[in-house]
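Running co-folding for adenosine-5'-triphosphate.
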Amino acid sequence: MSHHCFQTLEYEPAFLSLGEEYWDEVQAATFPQHILRFRNDALLPLMGLDPAKVTDADFIAAFGQFQGREPFLAMRYHGYQFGEYNARLGDGRGFLYGQFRGVDGQLYDLGTKGSGTTPYSRGGDGRLTLKGGVREVLASELLHRLGVRTFRSLSLVETGESLWRGDEPSPTRSSVLVRLGRSHIRFGTFERLHYLRRPDLIRRLLDHVIYYYYPHLLEIPDPKERDCAFYRELVARTADLAAQWLVAGFCHGVLNTDNMAITGESFDYGPYVFLEHYDLGFTAAYFDYYGRYAYGNQPAICAWNLEKLQIPLSLVMPLEEMQAALKTFGDRCQTTYFKLMLKRLGWADLPLELGRPLVAETQAFLSRSSISYPQFFVSLRQEFSRQWAVDVGHIFCESPTLPSADQKLLDRWKKIYFELLQQATPSQQASIPQTLAAANPLVILTRPQIEHIWQAIDQGDDWSRFTAALELMQT
Ligand SMILES: Nc1ncnc2c1ncn2[C@@H]1O[C@H](COP(=O)(O)OP(=O)(O)OP(=O)(O)O)[C@@H](O)[C@H]1O
Ligand SMILES: [Mg+2]
């Protein structure tokens, strides 16, 4: 067995040390083939590694062949799926590969997806399709670029098996993904412990979460007050996340409580969709018959999930305080939404009272017109010029004329944008291009674009579109 770079990391047994009540040790599958399809060099410095010194063979040995590291831990969890409690969950096709300190001093998880069966596979094959892996890499990297607090993709290895799936033409190709995030502890990790009637284990897990992921709260001397501060902060982080998805034009699709991280990060990119058109009722998953996880319903569902989390937490902390904290969710989500939306519109530090009409008008324009949600922001970034402040007629003057109904809506939008420009200070005006460039990547990954990328891989093993999209995100 050869030595690889990722063995030099000092892995920290944080989750392991919680004890056997929280995980099962598992083995990785042995795959017939290992082809490295994606390596995220941008993440290596955080791991203390120099990208120039990490070879593809290192990636394959570590994250395709799973050499030189143990134990791998399947994490135990339950969750509410589409509103129904499911006690037959847990890592069924992935495991916690290891935890390490980033150069920033924070603890990070490496977790797999598609690495083989575990005690929680329930008859599933424990695998991830290559298309699923490609989609997950694209989502995580674009969301990161759009400012969403998300798990990142570290590597994708194609593994040479044939898989059968109801939602993909089959047989279909296989892969294993490795993700990097703060924590894979889910709301459902707590829910399972309530189901088992184990307040002692909830207490231990909550202390663990605060110690590693909310360490600034350790300064609060009163333990009860500290617990409440934790829940308040989780509400705030989750409200921010819901706002970030909305602004990104992202519909996650399966916001079950087992897909909600206790750190407030976004992860698990299955049937997600980046919206083509701004529509609050849009649903991503074909099996979401009632629109539970519709684009515009994401804040409400996150609040629902936070409310469900009160059930296990109330075994160790006061319920009333959590109920009061949850009441702040709506305002927090809205405020974050306005701030971030204004950034996408070029305004980094506009007082909210001034910016609100522009956001409202943007929503009206995007929902009622036929304009593409992501294309609108790309066009804004590409066409904005200082001339816009001189005469309203310069705004989007290079764009092709729209159908008349759309044009009318756009004219109202232009008027408001122009008024804001006229009120803006010279320095505010000068910062607009930079703000637009930072908030609006040039990559668009709505359904047709992703299918276009996949088609080239599927039909000609052509990875150039995939690589180009990822490179464009990083510029
Ligand atoms: N092919 C499979 N084989 C075995 N178990 C599976 C498979 N696909 C999904 N599961 C299990 O079904 C449950 C729900 O799956 P879901 O799609 O939410 O999670 P996931 O995509 O597997 O992983 P994660 O939430 O870590 O991103 C989980 O317990 C998961 O492990
Ligand atoms: Mg999941």
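Result summary
The two ends are 38 Å apart (CA to CA).
The first strand starts at residue 23 and ends at 26.
Job closed.
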